[in-house]
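Encode chain A's predicted structure.
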Amino acid sequence: MQIMMIGHSTLLIETDGQRVVTDPYFGTWGNPAFRRLTPPARTREELRDVNLVLLSHNHWDHVDRRFFGSLSRTIPVVTSNQTTWLTKGQGAQNVIGLNVWESREFGNLKITAVPARHTAIATGFVLQSENKQVYFAGDTYYGPFMKTIGNRFQLLVALMPVTTYRLPMTMGEQGAVYAVQDLSPKVVIPIHLGIRPRFPLLRTNNTPEGFERRLREAKLETKVVILKDGETWSL
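Encoded structure for chain A:
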């Protein structure tokens, strides 16, 4: 298994012959309120041949209409069952909706939708493959549901946001520490790092390094792997 950081919350997970991309977003400018810090490490064209797409929610920085439009109808886009209509409207053709705690198998890869709490309807996912379990949080605040996720799964890796802005749209450093306490993953790979508010008053001093420092202060042994765009973590 290996996980490549494409940028922001877009990752390429390769496991047991399957290539999975999360929250595809290949825009390079951002929007009037947020700018993208660096271009994605891979282009839309380079990832058109993935086997599966996981979509946590439908915000602009997690959805790429051009990418969806370029995908073959045979490639499933898995998302919350409550937002399949919206995902189809954003260009995805083969949309599969899952309810919370519902699972679906794609070859030797099992995907389970798990709770998330965000400013939009959202879901997280647990991927099970090669006897390993990976949690992709998407955008979420910390919540008591993470204790349930931690009890149901023995997580090798948690892919989750660890920084935030004003107004907060994900959990920040301290919330991420609480999440680690509940989830008990062996490794955390921070995500949602690829955009920054254009207005200084909306920024905070939260960083992945600050999150790691708080983990150590809390006496937690979970390893933090900070991936730059284009870098890969391999088991």
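The helical segments are 65-70, 84-89, 145-152, 173-183, 208-217.
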